[in-house]
Each structure stands twice: as structure tokens, then as C-alpha cells.
Predict the structure of Transketolase.
Amino acid sequence: MRDHNELKKVANSIRKNIVQMIHEAKSGHPGGSLSAVEILTALYFDEMNIDPQNPKKEDRDRFVLSKGHAAPVLYSVLAEKGYFPKEELLKLRKIGAMLQGHPDMKGTPGVEMSTGSLGQGFSAACGMAMASKMDNAPWRVYVLLGDGEVQEGIVWEAAMSAVHYKLDNLVAFLDYNGLQIDGKNEDVMNINPIVDKFKAFGWNVIEIDGHDYDQIFAALDSAKETVGQPTMVIAKTVKGKGISFMENEAGWHGTAPSDEDLANALKELGGEM
């Protein structure tokens, strides 16, 4: 699709979905879902080899949402892509509904890995990439981590193994918005110098603006040309991106919008869901 205007329209619709579904559920994580919209839009609407009508096709690329609490962005993207009806979004976190608070690979078409315990999704993605290598398969693996998530030790075990096994079919995005549930990363547990750390582990590291499609696609193209190394894309983003009163506010990490908040958010985004 690499028509940026079309991608921006899709992203705007995804943002409407996110705030609407979290408002309806009265719980969820808007801030870190909104910050990752452009990354997932680029992957699902251009980059990845996928088929919503055949979610389990063998040669499909895999995506793992390692920061599973940002499930609303994944669900919104999957619904927009046609994996399931958009009506399901308004049943988020409802008893008996398809869409749980964290991704469930057994109950939701298009979800490759059940995630929520931070760091485990990254490890699973490494395992998937290794399986593709062992089978001489063509499919690639993409994974999204949160910046607070990389405070988990399991992330660094996975980072070490990905380099050891030369998983050049693995592309990780770090959603680096600088905030987590308790405040700034640097105050909770400083992750810097994050670029130097991944480089020291042996990753091909690329720094980008995570809301700029040109930079996202350039990073993806570079990753495909890289041989013998996994790629880590450090994507600088804005928590709550697209909704002015949510942007760069840690309080919106896990707070559902009120009726008034929803109305104001949809007004900024240009109308209803």
C-alpha cells in the first residue's frame, strides 16, 4: 500500500477504535496502544505477508505483541484488516467475548501468541524465528516491545539468543515513548543507553521516529538486507499519540476515557467510530 495518505486514514480509524473500545470496556491501556499505531499499520497494511481470510496459512509472516497490555491496538488493526467484524471491538473485556484484556492466541483470529507477562512475547518471537530458520521457511517474524518492558531480565536472555542463532529473519520494534505506568522510564528504572546496549549484544540497531512512515519502511527495508543479525528498531514515539490531552501523560497508561474524554478524543480524530 505505501500510499502514506491511505495509511494515515487507516491509522486514524484505528485510533478511533482504540478509544471507543476502551471507553466501552471501562478499562484498558490507551497510552501505549496509541503510540504504536503507525508501526502496526505499516506492518499489517503493507509489509507483512498475511491473509485475513486464511489466518493460519503456513507461509504467513508472524507478529507478536510482546507488550500484551496494548492489546487494543492489535485488535483494532486486526479488525480493520478483516480478521473479524469490527463489532467485536466494543465487546472488549466482556465476559464470554472474543477479545480479552490481553491477546489470546486460542480465541482470536490473527493473534499468534498469548502475551501479557512482559518479556515472554519477545522470547516466543525468537523461538518462532528460529523455527522458520530450522524449516528453511520464507516467513519472517516481527515483534513489538514496550520501553518499560525491556526492564525485564527475560528480554536480555532473548536478545542474547537471537544474536547467537543469527536470526536475521527477526525484526523487533521498541515502542520508546519514555513513559510507563509509574512515570518516566528514567525515574523507574533507566534503560539507557538502550541503543548501545542492543548494539553490544550484537543486534543491527536502527533509530527512527515511530510515527514517520518513511522512516518505518526504510528500517524494514534495511532489516531485510541485513544478513546474520536480528534487527532492533528503536522507535521514538509519543504515548497517547493523536489525542492532545493524552499525549506524554503517564496517567493515560491504563485509564479508560470518560464520556467527555471520548467525545473530545473523537472530535480531535474527526468524528465517530
Summary: Strands lie at 62-65, 141-146, 170-176, 179-180, 183-184, 204-209, 231-236. Residues 160 and 201 are 6 Å apart (CA to CA). Residues 4-269 form a domain with the Rossmann fold fold (CATH 3.40.50.970). The mean pLDDT is 96.
